[in-house]
């Protein structure tokens, strides 16, 4: 992932809970939102459950720069969170990551 031309980085992360772990994953994500919002450089961090698809989640994040995102991903708490998350999700963390690059039409 790289920073967008105007500096900020937008990340969409989609994941699905392992069967029977839907509530556990929702609780896990809920607990992780506030600390992530408080990380330096965070612009926006919103968790969503996909309507009509219990156990499917989307997190929308915006960071001031790639450096801020990298610092978030390397935060000491991640050493504990990532292994616990992997126990709850179906697939890998990387499989669900999408980087968005904003653009505006020419006037």
TrEMBL record:
Residues 9-97 form the ABM domain. InterPro entries: ABM_dom, AI-2_Isomerase_LsrG, Dimeric_a/b-barrel. It comes from the Bacteria. It holds the Pfam family ABM. PROSITE patterns: ABM. One of its GO terms (molecular function) is catalytic activity. This is ABM domain-containing protein. It comes from Cryptosporangium arvum DSM 44712.
């Amino acid at each position: 992932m790289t920073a967008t031309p105007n500096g900020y980085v937008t990340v969409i992360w989609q994941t699905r809970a392992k069967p029977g772990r839907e509530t556990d994953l929702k609780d896990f994500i809920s607990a992780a939102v506030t600390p992530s919002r408080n990380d330096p450089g965070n612009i926006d961090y919103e968790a969503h459950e996909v309507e009509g698809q219990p156990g499917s989640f989307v997190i929308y994040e915006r960071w001031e720069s790639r450096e801020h995102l990298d610092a978030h991903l390397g935060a000491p708490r991640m050493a504990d969170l990532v292994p616990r998350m992997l126990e709850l999700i179906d697939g890998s963390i990387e499989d669900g990551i999408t980087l968005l690059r904003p653009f505006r039409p020419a006037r």
